[in-house]
Amino acid sequence: MEWDFSGLEQKIIGCRRCPRLVEWREKVAREKTRRFRNQEYWGRPVPAFGNPDAALVIIGLAPAAHGGNRTGRIFTGDRSGDWLYESLYRFDFSNQPTSTSIDDGLAVNNCLITAVLRCAPPDNKPLPEEINNCREYLQRELQLTSRKRIVVALGRIAFDAFLKTWRVLGEQPKHPKPEFCHGGEWELPGGFILIASYHPSQQNTQTGKLTRPMFHKIFRRARSILGG
After folding, report:
1. By the 8 A CB rule, do 60 and 116 touch?
2. How far apart are CA 91 and CA 141, in angstroms?
3. DSSP letters spanning the chain
4. 49 Cβ contact list (under 8 Å, min separation 6)
5. Burial bucket for residue 206 (CB in 10 Å: 0-12, 13-18, 19+)
6. Per residue in 4-52, pLDDT tens?
7. What domain range is 158 assigned to?
8. What is the CA radius of gyration of the chain?
9. What is the pTM of this model?
10. pLDDT digits (tens, 9 = 90+) for 118-130
11. Is the distance from CB of 159 to CB of 180 less than 8 angstroms?
C-alpha cells in the first residue's frame, strides 16, 4: 500500500513492532518522573516534525523518555532539543529558540526533523533489530521528501542508519565511503549533501565533546548552502 506523508506518520504513531520498546515507553508514561508527575505523557511512537517538502532533513536517534515520549514531538522538552532548536532559530530554520510542548507555537522553516527510532529506548540504547524494524519508516520518509538538498545526521547511529537506508533506496555514495566525523560533509548521488554532527546529548554537551560553536557550525553551513 502506498502512503502519503500524513498517512505514513499516522501509521508510525500506531506502531507496536518492538515489544521491548512498547513496554518501556508505556511504563515511562505511566510512572512518569517527579518533575512531570502532573502531566499526561504521549507514550506512543513520535512522528516526524516539520515540512515534508523541506530542503533540510535532520535525523536524530530517538525520542527521549521524558522528552518526546512525554510531549509527543521530537526533540521537545529535553536538553538535546534545547540545543537543536536554539541552533535552528539562530540560522532561521525555526520561529523560536525553544521547544517545550506540542502546543508552544513552534514552527520550523524549510526543515523536517525525524529519527532512526520512533520510541524511546531504555538507556538510549536501541537493539539492532529495533533499528531494523524502524528503518522502513525512515526509508519511506526519505522517498517522500523529494525536495531535500541537505541531510544532517545527529550522531553515528543516525549517520549509519541513513547510509544503510540510502543503499536500500538504490543509491550508492561516491567513493570513498563516508566515515562519521563531526562536521564531515559529502555530496551524494542526486545532488544533495550529507553533513554529520555529534548528537547534542548531555553526554556530549556536558563533557565538552560537543560545544555550542561546533553545533552552530553545522547549521551555519546548511544555511550557507541553501542561501538566505
Report:
1. yes
2. 24
3. ----HHHHHHHHHT----HHHHHHHHHHHHH--GGGTTSPP--SPPPPEE-TT-SEEEEES---TTTHHHHSSTT-SSHHHHHHHHHHHHTTSBSSS---STTS---BSSEEEEES-SSPPGGG---HHHHHHHHHHHHHHHHH-TT--EEEEESHHHHHHHHHHHHHTT--PPSSPP---TT-EEEETTTEEEEEE----HHHHTTTSS-HHHHHHHHHHHHHHH--
4. 73, 74, 75, 76, 108, 112, 113, 114
5. exposed
6. 999 999 999 999 999 999 999 999 999 999 999 999 999 999 999 999 9
7. 5-226
8. 17
9. 0.95
10. 999 999 899 999 9
11. yes
Residue with cell 536501541: 126
pLDDT at 192: 84
CB 80 within 8 A of CB 201: yes
What CATH number is associated with residue 84? 3.40.470.10
**SS (HEC) of 60-95:** ECCCCCCCHHHHCCCCCCCHHHHHHHHHHHHCCCEC
Pair 151, 59: CB distance under 8 Å: yes
Residue 176 has pLDDT above 70, yes or no: no
- Residues facing 107 on adjacent strands: none
Domains in the chain: how many in total?
A: 1
Mean pLDDT of 58-76: 98
17 CB neighbour count, 10 Å cutoff: 16
**pLDDT beyond 70 at 219:** yes
CA 67 to chain centre: 13
